[in-house]
Amino acid sequence: MRPLRHPVLAVLTGALALGGLTACTEKSDAKAGEDGTIGVTAADTACDTTAKTAKAGKVTLAIANKGKRATEVEIVMPDGRIVSEKENIGPGVTYTLTAEVKAGDYEIACRPGMVGHGVRQKLTVSGGGAAARDPRLDAAVSAYRDYAQDQADQTLPKVKVFTDAIRAGDLAAAKKAYAPSRIGWERTEPVAESFGDIDPKTDTRADGLEKGQKWTGWHRLEKALFADGRIGAEEKSLATRLDTDLKDWQRRVGRAVITPTSMANGAKDLLDEVATGKVTGEEERYSHTDLVDFKANVEGAEKAYTLLKPVAKAHDAALVRRLDARFAALDKQLDAYRPSAGSYAFTSYDKVKEAQRKKLSDGVNALAEPLSKLAAAVVGK
């Protein structure tokens, strides 16, 4: 599960890379630099930008968080769709966010604490359309969409086994079916936000709920089964709701806006989440099936990388060699926790010692670092 946030319907999300930033203040009549760069100074109550206008094509936000809380910075369309974003920018941290944008009216939003509407500045983009399309990247996106659709199609029958067991009041069968029902969803998490509000409906933990949000989905049922050891009327109702929400997910895959850079950035952000959050055991805190999630997350990220690899290799062959090696090393690490390749009977995560968890985190981080450069290699920047 990713941290709860606004639904993402990305238009053309851009490359993310660590970078520096000079101090910036808002200039209402200023334009983006010749290279499309706009300085963004985020603070706890402010979001100052160095430009209000930019030319269509590549726009780069050079972000510095001067506040005391982590923030999220987004490029937002008038209807609320997020074009590109970077979340969890810590105090004192700088970050460079690049996106391809078409002519139109946008807002640059800073969301201190990564909650609420945030502080926003207008951005007008004029001129021609976005950069010319690369047929190789179109093919990669098409193939990843097919992959996501296949995962959704395969997930629904597995979820029905899980929810049928709940509706039948069969606690043992429901526990057995829980982890397999989640594999397809976890594989598509690199682009989960392109499915809108499906993630918060189906994959939110209790500590990820927004004010007034009802707790639904897998983890609500996980607690009932593995922690409380009960199936009541509410759980049976929530099982049916999970079926309904995931059927909605299945329908949305074909309409979701997925781009080469959203694939690359989503894969990297997901592995960051694995390394810093999921590795603690917070995701599957009741069932301890975390390693099933880890493996599925890595598979989904690796699928995105594999499809983008031919283009990335043309721009940065050395990066591709590093990524090949890091994916292979992490796959080998995870294999040590299951009886055979292809099996999803992973070791219960409560049996994995702290030193072993640290090694897993290190392995994920070792992959995430070069993976952060994939988006830039894909667009040739």
Average pLDDT value?
Answer: 88
Summing up helix and strand content along with how strands pair, one would put the structural category as: alpha+beta
Contiguous helical run count: 10
Portion of residues within helices: 40-55%
Low-confidence regions: 2-28
Q: Can you give keywords for this protein?
A:
5-stranded mixed beta sheet; 381 residues; alpha+beta; 10 helices
Can you describe this structure?
This protein has helices at residues 135-167, 171-187, 198-202, 218-228, 233-252, 260-276, 290-315, 317-335, 354-371, 374-379; strands at residues 16-17, 37-42, 47-49, 53-55, 57-65, 71-76, 82-89, 94-101, 104-112, 119-126. With 381 residues, it is an alpha+beta fold. The chain has a five-stranded mixed β-sheet with strand order 1-8-5-2-3, with no helix packed on it. The longest helix has 33 residues, at 135-167. It starts with 15 loop residues before the first strand and ends with a helix.
